[in-house]
Amino acid sequence: MSQRDTIYQNDAPVSAFVFDDKVATVFADMINRSVPGYASIIGMISSFAERYVQAGSRCYDLGCSLGAATLAMRHGIVADDVEIVAVDNSAAMIERFENLLLQDSGRVPVTLQCADILDTPIENASMVVLNFTLQFVPLAQRQMLIERIAAGLRPGGMLVLSEKIHFEDEQLNELFIDLHHRFKEQNGYSKTEISKKRASIENVLVPETLRAHERRILDAGFSSCAVWFQCFNFASMVAVK
Fold first, then answer.
1. pTM over 0.90
2. What confidence tens digit (pLDDT) does each residue in 75-92 have?
């Protein structure tokens, strides 16, 4: 069971955010109290899997953390002969996900890999999920990653891309940042915790505009894409090959 996130309550100097054991221990609480609509996104990933996963294919959860998207796909899939590959470069996350997987009732085989998603082959895929992952990939490598995903998807396959986003209009950008911070306060974070987390994650998580994501997706060879969910400066998109 996840512990409550109190990482930024202490007086320690702020350091760059990393997905270490300390974060993995509280991650489920952290993301649910920090990302508006997170539970809705996870639930819809299951529905997308039911509709789009093809028999005899693979599904990928890239940057799987504790495996919420993996398990959502696992319980949504109705096609036969499907394997899920869940990848994360944090050993602490993979270790905890292994324990959660042992307690899960799903029957679709899941392969866990502690690896860099930039080095992960994408083959025979019908669904790929990047759930708040691309924002941590260096900007210069994002196009290459999306192109590799597109190349590894079967025709009719789906990419689900969820991201924190930036707005071109700075007034709107500040509005949605403020509303997000209010959301976190309403979920029990103090102003000091919010400020310290923001400083910690700056230059580690680099958001882009929806327009930039759409351009990259279409340039990579997807036939269509659309935003299906947005709350403040968080959005989830689907793209079909």
1. yes
2. 999 999 999 999 999 999
